[in-house]
Amino acid sequence: MTDIIGFPLPNHIFLTTTILNLSFEFTLFTDFQFYMNTNILGYTSSPAFDTSVAYFSMEFAIDQQLPIYSGGLGFLAGSHLRSAYELKQNLIGIGILWKYGYYDQCSNEDGSMRVEFTAKSYPFLEDTGIVFQVPIRNHDVAVKAFLLKPSTFGTTPLYLLSTDLPENDDFGRSISGRLYDNDEQIRVAQSILLGIGGGMLLDLLKIVPDRYHMNEGHAIPLNFFLYSKFKDLAEIKMKMVFTTHTPEAAGNEVHHFELLKEMSFFYHLQVHEVKYLLDMEGDQFNYTLAALKFSGIANAVSKIHAEVAKRMWSANSGVCEIISITNAQNQKYWQDEAFRKYILKVDDDNLAGRKKEMKVDLFREVEKRTGKKFNPDVLTIVWARRFAEYKRADLLLQDWGRFIQLITDNVKPVQVIWAGKPYPEDHSATQLFNEITERTKSFGNCAVLTGHELDLSALLKKGADIWLNNPMMYREASGTSGMTAAMNGAINLSIPDGWVPEFAKDRLNCFLITPAMGDYSQEEINRQENLNLMDSLQHLVLPLYYEDVRGWGKMVKNAVEYVVPEFESARMVTEYYQKLYNPTNRT
Questions:
Q1: DSSP-derived secondary structure letter, 249
Q2: Cys-Cys with 335: which of 70, 153, 303, 487 at CB 3.0–4.6 Å?
Q3: What is the mean pLDDT of the chain?
Q4: From CA 155, how far away is CA 210, in angstroms rounded?
Q5: pLDDT of residue 324
Q6: Which residues contact 587 (CB under 8 A, 6 or more apart)?
Q7: What are residue 214's DSSP bridge partners?
Q8: Residue 4 falls within a domain, yes or no?
Q9: What pLDDT, on the 0 to 100 scale, is given for residue 1?
Q10: What is the 8-class DSSP label of residue 93?
Q11: What angle, rounded to 10 degrees, do the helices at 287-294 and 303-313 form?
Q12: Secondary element (H or E) of residue 406
């Protein structure tokens, strides 16, 4: 067994450094022996995963008590740290401690959505005592480092940075306030905090990882910090890897060069030096493109997404190879323990009974929130993920007449639940959430739930019979929620996008919605795919559920068998070591 990355430092450190011609000095009063001693942390790495990795992510979904995530990116990062811990990989996480989290999604009296920001408390985090300065807008912003120890939630060590300190001004304190703040300067400063702040923290801890892993492009300033040390792009490319998660514009951040210069985003480099270094032109700096130029290798998050990403970026000079490492989720965290036991024992009767109990657990929550009583014997359809236009939460409602027929059928009845958070400033997505709420609130078998975070997400996946996934084709890079739903006996009814084609055996372990074929308007695509969705429900899903109990149970078991272990995150994090981190694979 080998120690986790890092070496003990003296108990008291006096550090003087110069950044952007601004000199500052400060004293660290902390017991680094305590924070880096792996025996005290209760974590040592396996020789099979000796390559040391620092994993940078803007969000981590690890536990409901640590709401520092917004959605899929955080869910992926949380499963990554959990499986890395289970395999004893030599990896630590670097993130930000969001004072207000993402936001609290609440309901008004009429059922419409309300956004609230409430300060969170994190008493289970270790205050390392480390305070240092990061240059932002040519001023020093004080940063404190907290540690999530492995024993707390079963993850590799995670360091979280906060600027919520009395010595900072209002702008400085706000940097670690709200995840994905809508203010452009604060958003830029958040990337500086993650990238440059995270790089500085590693230096203070005397951690020199073999690989730096950017989970999305938010940490891109890390590369400019490293360039100040190595003065060599090739050296950075040997150490840097990158995961791109989405073809959507919102996930590929762009800002003006001049704004980034004013924000100290490029550390000590000038705009013309950045453009020369990365062979970039124009007035806009694209985070994803820069990350692909700084990295030695990158991965997309499904096989389809890899092809999309290559088409998007490969024509640009200097971009690295993009391979596919399909996302996955942690079975131990997400799968119901009793359900897993009955699967392993091939105990069909108790398996069906446990599924019914999980539905009852979900329906208690539905009743508590909405007053509506759902029936555990009725087929339950769940659509639950981030509310965004391309994910089409309302596709089921496109043909309103047929939807009414579906939910008023007393012979083969259904229940439908929607849940998910839009970005708080995405007014069209919020409007869609409210429209679905308004249109369905009079039906006792339809519910729209707020507060879609880890606990509710788990209830929904365990209580669903059908997990509905109907994004616009080629817009969903991965879409991992269906993996954990399948682990808990929910059958995917899905457009064949993202991870789904790598899993799907139509009518064997899932139901595929036939995508519209042809050069149609989006309106016509929606019409055709709604027709295909409703036909699948009427002619395939409902007859199987109500007329062939054994056949339904067999499909449930097939889904679990196909999803584990291929889409369990132990496979994913092992692939990261084999394909991205392993030095024998790097040239």
A1: G
A2: 487
A3: 92
A4: 20
A5: 97
A6: none
A7: 56, 242
A8: no
A9: 38
A10: E
A11: 100
A12: helix 400-407
Amino acid symbol at 140? D
Strand partners of residue 416: 381, 446
Please check whether residues 352 and 419 belong to one and the same domain: yes
Question: Residue 146, SS3?
Answer: strand
Q: 444 lies in which domain range?
A: 331-567
In the block, residue with structure tokens 């879409």: 479
Backbone angles phi, psi at 443, to 5 degrees: -95, 125
Tokens of 143: 């940063």
Whose CA is closest to 131, among 114, 146, 143? 143
Task: Tell how far CA 66 is from the center of its chain.
Answer: 14
Do 516 and 487 belong together in one domain?
yes
Q: Which helix (H) or strand (E) holds 162?
A: strand 158-162
Q: CA-CA distance, 248 to 202, in Å (whole number)?
A: 31
**H, E, C per residue of 200-232:** HHHHHCCCCCCEEEEECHHHCHHHHHHHHHHCC
How many domains is the chain built from? 2
Look up residue 416 and give its two tokens: 């439908």
pLDDT < 50: residue spans in the chain: 1-40, 587
Q: What is the pLDDT of residues 212-226, one digit of tens each?
A: 999 999 999 999 999
Say if residues 561 and 538 touch (Cβ distance below 8 Å).
Answer: no
pLDDT of residue 541: 98
If we measure between CA atoms, which residue out of 156, 145, 240, 128 comes closest to residue 201? 145
Q: What is the pLDDT of residue 41?
A: 63
pLDDT recorded at residue 261: 98
CA distances from 340 to 109, 232, 335, 354, 382 (A): 39, 50, 7, 10, 21
Query: Distance between CA atoms of 185 and 260, rounded to whole angstroms?
Result: 9
Which two structure tokens, joined as six digits, stand for 534? 């409703």
Reported pTM: 0.93
203 near 133, Cβ under 8 Å? Answer: no
Phi, psi of 286 (to 5 degrees): -100, 120
Angle at 61 between CA 56 and CA 67, to 5 degrees: 110
CATH code, domain with 417: 3.40.50.2000
DSSP label at residue 57:
E
> What is the residue-wise DSSP string for 98-123?
-TT-S-EEEE-TTS-EEEE------T
For position 586, what pLDDT does the model report?
A: 57
Enumerate the H helices of 114-197 as residue ranges: 150-153, 170-174, 184-192
Task: Answer yes or no: do 142 and 205 share one domain.
Answer: yes
Burial 149-160 (b: 16+ CB within 10 A, else e): bbebbbbbbbbb
* DSSP at 394: T
Q: How far apart are CA 504 and CA 499, in angstroms?
A: 9
Same domain for 250 and 395: no
